């Protein structure tokens, strides 16, 4: 579903991502972990086609991101770490706008918006201006918009930040359901407990290099993911 081959991205001569290759298959829930500044966001933004890079290639669902960006973007939903929404739209206007862009039919959009808003407890606020939303409410709205067109590949940068415990629980359920139905998710997180429980595959990035990648069991070994993470970083 997503293939990153030898991705290298530099800022002012410094490598933010250094020769990273990884593949995410349909059904994978892939957690991407690493310290602050390790290169997670840079990798993610390159993978979804909003950041140019010097070397490497990205394939999404069999399409080259460079040659067929539209075909790739039709199957992707991307949630940035700090979603920039439109303060002067109401929540429902924003969701309708996203549904229009992705050509989601009337009945489907109504059903999905009702379902996801109920699960994330945002139904009562959909008529309010986004400018009046709290940080967590904006995060919930952005999440609903990401799931709205039933993407085949969901790319999320720190999706749990700002969510209350019940919304975090619901989001985990929604992520698992999507992967059970054959979708793929690539997400970054600093919450290692969540990554360990939720993901079937894990990648660890340090200083722009992918220093561990495999099934959660392989990366974790006999210890916890937290322990394995600290050990891998210390030993590299
Ligand atoms: N626009 C930019 N200009 C210059 N350097 C940048 C820019 N964006 C990121 N970097 C650098 O690239 C490196 C990787 O940053 P990136 O944001 O990908 O890290 P991250 O793993 O997502 O970190 P965090 O967990 O703190 O969000 C860092 O050294 C950072 O300073």
Automatic annotation (TrEMBL):
Residues 2-232 form the ABC transporter domain. PROSITE patterns: ABC_TRANSPORTER_1, ABC_TRANSPORTER_2. Keywords: ATP-binding, Nucleotide-binding, Transport. SUPFAM superfamilies: P-loop containing nucleoside triphosphate hydrolases (SSF52540). The keyword Transport applies. The keyword Phosphoprotein does not apply. InterPro entries: AAA+_ATPase, ABC_transporter-like_ATP-bd, ABC_transporter-like_CS, ABC_Transporter_VariousFunc, P-loop_NTPase. It holds the Pfam family ABC_tran. GO terms for molecular function: ATP binding. Gene3D superfamilies: P-loop containing nucleotide triphosphate hydrolases. PANTHER family: ABC TRANSPORTER ATP-BINDING PROTEIN ALBC-RELATED (PTHR42939:SF1). This is ABC transporter ATP-binding protein. It comes from Lacrimispora xylanolytica.
């Amino acid at each position: 579903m997503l293939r990153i081959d030898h991705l290298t991205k530099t800022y002012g001569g410094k490598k933010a991502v250094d020769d990273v290759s990884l593949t995410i298959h349909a059904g994978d829930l892939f957690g991407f972990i690493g310290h602050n500044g390790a290169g997670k966001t840079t990798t993610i933004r390159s993978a979804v086609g909003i950041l140019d890079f010097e070397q490497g290639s990205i394939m999404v669902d069999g399409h080259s991101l460079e040659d067929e960006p539209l075909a790739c973007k039709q199957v992707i939903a991307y949630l940035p770490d700090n979603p920039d929404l439109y303060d002067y739209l109401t929540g429902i206007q924003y969701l309708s706008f996203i549904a229009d862009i992705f050509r989601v039919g009337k009945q489907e959009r109504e059903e999905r918006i009702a379902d996801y808003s109920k699960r994330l407890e945002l139904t009562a606020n959909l008529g309010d201006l986004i400018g009046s939303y709290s940080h967590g409410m904006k995060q919930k709205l952005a999440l609903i918009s990401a799931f709205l067109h039933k993407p085949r590949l969901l790319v999320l940068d720190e999706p749990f930040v700002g969510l209350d415990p019940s919304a975090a629980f619901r989001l985990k359920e929604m992520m698992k359901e999507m992967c059970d139905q054959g979708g793929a998710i690539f997400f970054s997180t600093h919450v290692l407990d969540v990554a360990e429980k939720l993901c079937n595959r894990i990648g660890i990035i340090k200083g722009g290099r992918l220093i561990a990648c495999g099934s959660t069991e392989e990366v974790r070994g006999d210890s916890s993911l937290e322990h394995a993470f600290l050990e891998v970083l210390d030993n590299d």
